[in-house]
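During the no-cost extension, the postdoctoral fellow (Dr. R.K.) reprocessed legacy sequence entries with the updated structure-token encoder. One reprocessed record is reproduced below for audit purposes.
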Amino acid sequence: MRQSLALGALALVAALAACGTDTVVVPVAVLPPPTGLYYELDPVGAGTAPAGIMLRWTPTYDASLAAWNIYSRGTTSDPYVLRGTTTSPTFHDDGVPHLQYYVTAVDVNGGESAPSAAITVDERLTLPAPTSLVSTSLNSAILLEWTDNAYASAPSRFKDYRVYSTSYDLDQNLCGADWVFEGTTVAPEYLVGALLNGVPRCYGISAVSIEGYESLWSPLRYDTPRPDGLNVVLYARQVQDAGSGFRFWLDSNHDGLAQPGEVGLVTSASSGLADFVVSRDAAGKLSLVAARAGTGLQVYGAMPVNDLSSIDYAPAGGYGTLPLEALPGWGYVAEMAGPDGFARYGAVRVSHVGTDFLILDWSYQTDPGNPELTVVKH
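Re-encoded structure tokens follow.
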């Protein structure tokens, strides 16, 4: 009896000694491995490394679930290391992502499930950059349009386009260095609004996949918003002096800034303020006639234009002071000498010609020396 008790005591001592070692036995969780793991990168600019990665997986509704562990490694030859723990079925890893990730489920007893399927951050999934970009100058706005080749290359993996802009130096023909993010769109077009007329901007477009990979940028394009107006009625000066002249911009403050009420002014022919006036000849034809010193006119192109936005760049030369017959649907461009030595440019499209009056649309570029009136197509 005493021998049996002694042997039992020895066994108990041996068991306690074994428990005092550094060996930790991790219980195995009864939870299944997480499923549906996927990722989305944080794009920060064309072709640059992403700012982070967001991991998501299918939520598990189990009372024994306590948390999820996230493991990652930088290369396929590295061991996986614990990256973090979360109680949400998402995990954001800030900075340049690792190459591979997987997730495990942890129960309330500390047991850990088998790993989920691993995901690999594969930069080869990047979409192609838009191949072209054009723009339309509007009043305090710019309309951007580009080729939709990124979407066409992989419709199921396309997420959206990102629009960037910066300043533009017309004299140096150079885009600025401080780019800002304008917004995103799923369509191959974007309207940039609330802009200052006469201030050039430079634009670039990238494409983003559903994984967050951002493409290189489209070709860069610059544009300059400018004032415009529709359905202006001008009378022939032989019918009435008032309302027979038009002034694109009257800089009454002499500050070089186009203030409200200073652009697109209808005035009288006798005021001496008009850039051009409407005149009727003996045959009853209405014409546009340059009126102010330093102003010249010319017909735009050799055929009617669809609308005002069809008049893109003001021609470099060919302006004169001879009367130009006003024809419905035709465009006309004006060049006006500026007080600073730089020319200003304006455009009109005649929409209606009557016996005593005509109706026109107009646009004017307030940026000195800038011939850009609407669509940029380089």
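The CA atoms of residues 70 and 103 lie 5 Å apart. Confidence is low (pLDDT under 50) at residues 1-21, 374-378. The remaining legacy entries will be reprocessed before the final report is submitted.
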